[in-house]
Design a protein that fits this description.
The chain is of the alpha+beta class. The protein has a single domain (4-90), classed as Nucleic acid-binding proteins (OB fold (Dihydrolipoamide Acetyltransferase, E2P)), CATH 2.40.50. It contains two helices and six strands. The chain has helices at residues 42-47, 82-90, and strands spanning 4-12, 22-26, 37-39, 53-63, 66-70, 78-80. Strands 1, 2, 3, 4, 5 and 6 form a six-stranded mixed β-sheet that branches. A hairpin with a 2-residue loop joins strand 4 and strand 5 (66-70). It is globular, with a radius of gyration of 13 Å.
Length: 94
């Protein structure tokens, strides 16, 4: 499986089967389902405000019935501004 950069956002969840109340999902415009979940560092999700946009090195992973993104909890990541997110989306596949 190949790795790629993706931008995710954190969000507050309720009613999902998870012990974590702050989850992560891909942002729109990357060709990834926005309802896809991200397996990533809990500490990273809790360190920044809900709604933060984070650039990660990830791969698509299939477990059970649903696909998700995976990034190792110890890998580097970058918090992006809205402008940086816009530039990232504009440059996908260029």
């Amino acid at each position: 499986m190949s790795y790629f950069y993706a931008v995710i956002e954190t969000f507050q969840t309720s009613g999902e089967f998870s012990h974590n109340s702050i989850r992560a999902r891909p942002i729109p415009g990357q060709g990834l389902p926005i309802n896809m979940r991200v397996e990533c560092s809990t500490a990273m999700r809790k360190k920044y405000p809900v709604g933060s946009k984070i650039k990660i090195w990830a791969q698509r992973k299939q477990t059970g019935v649903s696909a998700h993104l995976y990034t190792h909890f110890s890998w580097e990541y970058k918090i992006l501004t809205d402008h940086e997110v816009e530039l990232f989306i504009q440059n996908i596949d260029k």
